[in-house]
Amino acid sequence: MKSCLRLPRVLIPREGFETWAVIACDQFTSDREYWKRVERTVGDAPSTLSFILPEVYLGEEDEERIAAIRENMYAALEADVMSKLTRGAVFTERTTRTGTRRGIVACIDLEAYSCTPGEDAPIRSSEAVVPARLPARIAERKDAPLEFPHAIVFYRDKKDRAVRALLREDLELLYDFDLMEGGGHLTGKFVPQDIGEVILEMLHTKGEPMFAVADGNHSVAAAKAHWEAVKPSLKEEELAHHPARFMLVELVNIYDASVVFHPIHRLVKETDAEGFCDFFMKNVRCRREGNVLIPALPAGAEGVRRTDELCERFVRESGGVIDYVHGEKQLVLRTQEAGCAGVRLAAMDKDDFFPALKGGVNLPKKTFSIGEAKEKRYYLEGREIRYD
To answer: Both 17 and 134 in a single domain?
Structure first.
């Protein structure tokens, strides 16, 4: 069986992990103050904040911001603020109020990945990819020397063999610190090549998909699009090992006890909130709490699909912007603002996840989230993705 995974040479900061690691760019998209606090915390310290474009700022001088990201990456390389590990993986343990989630940072082969509906592949997207959300992410990757992942990819290991094997090893500690903004505690240990190859082989299972993108679907789709753009310029002998062919991700066992599926709620903003509530309640039986609607819809794909249809129809006819909110408290807070109303959705059962993807099916976008907003993956490990 051909492997879908690869051991990388990971980059980590030499020091200052507390200011280096920041949360995924697609979090707190309606909360500028969160990102302002992060900027104040980081200050002038080396940080992955300078390598990303938080989505809260999308549409505001994107070209200038993306150009600055590339410059910042090259500057970090020149300043030697990162150390490059020998080939291997990183075994992570992230502790939050949900528990301790364990992951393996390694590369997926983008040749084995597909987000095309109806197309079987060993590595599948889990949700529909919105084409309009890809250009900025592709532009970030184009000509960039480095990548830093926030993508989480699920594998299936009911007996948790891979993690239990790693816990028995005496691995070198790379980092051990508290994440900023209440993100919990993170440790990382280096998995050398000989052990890493055995572990990655254990993650492969029968049937497709073997792996599925749980978080960061658009980032992985953008990496694939970038790789397809690079391929025509390469010689035949370069195709197998070119760094753009691979993407750094965190591999997580879907059966990890700390993996809890949370819904991603819908927020309609810059609109007639009362009109939206009336419209939605005429189409779906709901309970209303302020400007938050709790619909009597099934959990998972079916309920999300129906909610999105109604939200999109209302926005087309009456105006507004649809946003995606993690956490009930955050939804309530946002709906207290003028011109905002929300729909609170139910969580998908994680046992339904892989079966729902058979035959190349995509879930509706933003069907679920792993953990609440503060529990999302923080950028930390990086990797070189081009030859200079």
So the answer is: yes
